[in-house]
Amino acid sequence: MHRHTVLFNLKDASNSEDVINKLRELEKLPTVEAMVIEKNIVPIGEHSPYEWCLIGDFADLEARDSYEKHEIHVDIIKGTFLPNVKDFIMSDINF
């Protein structure tokens, strides 16, 4: 299994519902085995600086690479994620 994790903050909380709903469309891509996009329940602070978390599970790294290149993923990242996100970090692991 391969897990892709993205922690992020939005620029504007007033459109968070629209942004998160658009990101949830990524769950439907063919190589996604499971995906969760939720607000962090730990209060924002020095050791928890990110408000949102996306976790996606894939069969393997090849499946994740296919997801990254998928036209819908590219469109959502370029058209919704990057314009609306203040900052983010990513982490990927195999387990």
Q: Quickly count the helices.
A: 3
Helix-residue proportion? 25-40%
CATH class: Alpha Beta
Gap between N and C termini, in Å?
A: 5 Å
Could you give a short account of the major beta sheet? 4 strands, antiparallel
**Strand-residue fraction?**
35-45%
Structural class: alpha+beta
Radius of gyration from the CA trace?
13 Å
Runs in which pLDDT lies below 50 for 5 or more consecutive residues are: none
Query: What is CATH's topology name?
Result: Alpha-Beta Plaits
How do the strands line up in the largest sheet?
Answer: 2-3-1-4
Name the overall outline. globular
Number of strand segments: 4
Number of domains: 1
Spell out the helices and strands N to C.
EHEEHHE
Helices and strands, with pairings:
Blueprint: E1 2-10, H1 16-23, E2 32-39, E3 52-58, H2 61-69, H3 71-84, E4 85-94
What this model shows, in words?
This protein is α+β, with helices and mostly antiparallel strands and 95 residues long. It has one domain: Alpha-Beta Plaits. Helix content is 33%, strand content 36%. The protein is built from three helices and four strands. Strands 2-3-1-4 form a four-stranded antiparallel sheet.
Which characteristics define this entry?
95 residues, alpha+beta, Alpha-Beta Plaits, 3 helices
Give a quick summary of the entry.
By secondary structure, the chain is α+β, with helices and mostly antiparallel strands. It has helices spanning 16-23, 61-69, 71-84, and strands at 2-10, 32-39, 52-58, 85-94.
